Amino acid sequence: MTTLLTVFDESALLELVELEKLYLELYPRFIITTPKPMVDIGWPDFADIRQAALLDYDLPFGMVCNRVHQPSVQPTIYLKLKQMVPQLSILTVVVYSSLGWTIVPYEKRIARGFVYEGHHSLEGAVFSIREHLQGVEVC
Q: DSSP string of 79-102?
């Protein structure tokens, strides 16, 4: 078993879930995904995330993709992610390398139905989600 590097906020953590390729940190209004080393993330992985956690969110929420291990992500995921997870309001990506930043503008252009942002730190990504969700109407 690969160990998780850090838990963002242990006092607010609802649940920590380990999937085959990544970890999920579940918080009241957002989720942090942290991939394991040397993985490719595709549709089956988002289906696993949805099944394991996203069905629990009935209000608009945010997702942080913590790319600490620089995973390979199929960018076409962002075209239909909102259809798969309608309550997703904002997705932030934490990028740790200059090479990783080269894909962020492309992913942002193809993201549909939710805000997409790149960040240099996990703290900045979570702050952005919290700020965004303050302005989102809850029905």
A: HHHHHH-TTEEEEEEE--SHHHHT
Structure tokens at 87: 């309550």
Burial of 31 (C-beta count, 10 Å sphere; 0-12/13-18/19+): buried
User: What are the pLDDT digits (tens) for 99-135?
Assistant: 889 999 999 999 989 999 999 999 999 999 999 999 8
Indicate the pTM of the whole model.
Answer: 0.87
Interatomic CA distance for residues 48 and 35, integer angstroms:
13
- Helices 77-84, 43-52: axis angle to 10 degrees equals 30
Report the amino acid identity of residue 36: K
Sequence length of the chain is: 139
Q: Which residue has the tokens 């989720």?
A: 31
